[in-house]
Amino acid sequence: MKTPQKRRVSLAKSKLQSNTTFRMNILFFAIFLLFSMLILRLGYLQIVKGEDYARAIARTEEVAVNTSVPRGRIFDSAGRLQVDNEPVNSITYTKMQTTKSSEMLEVAKELAKLIEKDTKKVTLRDKQDFYIQLNTESATEKVTAEERAAIEAEDIPQKEKQQKLDALVREKITDEELNSLTEEQLEVLAIYREMSSGYALSPQIIKGEGVTDEEFAVVSERLTDPKLEGVNTVTDWKRVKMTDLTILGSTTTPDQGIPANRLDYYLSRDYSRNDRVGTSFLEQQYEDVLQGQKSIVKNVTDGRGRVIETVPVDEGEPGKDLVLTIDSELQYELEKIVEEKLLALKAGPNSQLVKDAYLVMMNPNTGDVLSMVGKRVGEDENGKRVVNDYAFGTFTAAHEMGSTVKGATLLTGYAQDAVEIGEVQIDEPLKFAGTTQKNSIFNTTAFNRIPMNDLMAIERSSNVYMFKIALDIADRQYQYNRGLSVAPESFALMRNSFAQFGLGVETGIDLPNEGTGYAGGVSPGTKLLDLAIGQFDTYTTMQLAQYISTIANDGYRMQPHVVKEIRKSSSDGETLGPIETIMEPKIMNRINNTQEEIDRVKEGMRNVYIGSSGSARGQFSDTPYTAAGKTGTAEAYFYERGHALHGTLNVNIAHVGFAPYEDPEIAYAVVIPFVTTNPREVPRTNNEIARAAADKYFELKAKRSEDEPNKIKPPISGTRIE
Fold this sequence. Notes:
One of its GO terms (cellular component) is plasma membrane. By secondary structure, the chain is of the alpha+beta class. Among the domains are: 100 residues, Penicillin-binding protein, N-terminal non-catalytic domain, head sub-domain (Arc Repressor Mutant, subunit A, Orthogonal Bundle); 375 residues, DD-peptidase/beta-lactamase superfamily (Beta-lactamase, 3-Layer(aba) Sandwich). 38% of the residues lie in helices and 19% in strands. It contains 24 helices and 22 strands. Strands 2, 3, 4, 5, 8, 17 and 18 form a seven-stranded mixed sheet that branches. The chain has a six-stranded antiparallel sheet with strand order 11-10-9-22-21-20. The radius of gyration is 38 Å and the shape is elongated. The N and C termini lie far apart (120 Å).
């Protein structure tokens, strides 16, 4: 009887031991799986994702710090300095991520004892917030419990409730209370607002220009003082131009920082809010090149978020330098010519509306802009007549250019089989129903008929020859005193052809905000005739220069550019830095004409200068070099509401040319809008400027030296514009 009992106990123990072992095995297996998964996960994180996480850590630790690297300088084609950086002493403040407003205020109070700070930039909002910070308890008590309850009862996020409450507190601060702030307190406020406007770990300029040697020395001596924690003295810089040439552009100051309308654009490119940026022309167009690369530092923080060590990662580098195609010596001389002629015009009769004059000279083979002159007559604050730089008007201001475009009209006629080389047309006054007589200037007598070929049409500037080309393009026959209806396609055909020369379209110049002029409508039909002689659509001086360059360059339209090279910054301050980029010549298109047709037009333009009936013979027949060109006059109405001469008929004058005739080195365009209110007495100042400009180019070329081409040279004039 006992044996079975013992056996049952033994079996029970065996079964229990077996279950325990099984469970332990499951537990150990589960632990094994967990450890395996952990090891695999760690291996995945380290091997597969290790580099990604390392980069993520670097992003959180490496902070771009604005060390105010010098902006790239700008030189002319001969290495003469045009835009420089001038060092200035500055006092900066850098706040940490953990810095409190109260701590910044204490630093501001201490710094105010050492420097003088202008308070003009302090705003009403600044004063209100500062008053609240100084008188927190009494200011917040101005809001009643009922007003607080009303705001709390609103169904809006808590953040908006606080904003409304803060606004209400500010509203209740009286002018008397704000006026109680002393001059010393306002100076502290002026410093404090500069401190708080920057990013954490990014130096903020507290006082830049105007720091005295004494202020710089006193602050420098106390940089280790805990009361001035975050304050530093550095050498900053300011932009200085050596000429008043407007196309060089301008930049913001650290006080101005990034323009509000482009804030997101620059912030997305790692700019700081107080960074200088280009705001116009070359400084804006080449911002990415000129800006330079900030230094990168890795900030090591302690457990409380305080920076205990700053480790340099990338020292950064100054901005790259620009070398222009413009010869500042040539530019200077041509500016004098244009200014002198403009003032002489303004002093003459019928000159109430003349105020601008433009001149562009370029290399037709490369597109290099050698000079771009724009001058505008104005008055200073004392009412004295002055002449200001208006060079940007050469590519933004558009006008009717008159007969200068007849070369494009004739070449369009050749391409469209509207006229053949050597073809004779009859120059005769034309009369269409409902319009006044349309004629050439030299042939105004009704029914007077003068036969002439294409060369003579260019030399004598026959309007009627061009009219008849336009009529043939429109497939219309002239009939005396009949109406003229022209299909819109005829206007489009002529404008598309003109566009091949750069007329009416962007030239592609490397400057922002280029104008393209105004394209008139497609009616009435006689406007097509006006288009053919430059009396309808408007063009810029730069377009006119590209147009004549295209003819001079045997039909190849080159993209004009004012930057020749991009170079690294100079290492010694005496020679230009290594070339990084060369702006190669760019062909935009070739016109749809044969070489024979282009040569025919060039021959006609040569006759304008030396032919017996040439309109520029008086100025160009005796040049020591060969040249060719075309003059132009255009009737233009002056429109400016409120002006006494609003709606008055005026005359624009223009001139295009190139030289030497056999192998052109230069192409030039001159434009003077509204030169006279008397169409019967038109001055030839356009021709005079063109001749003087071409003479000056060859004169300077003859004495130019190529010695030390990479040597940095001083500017032509002693002008300094800060």
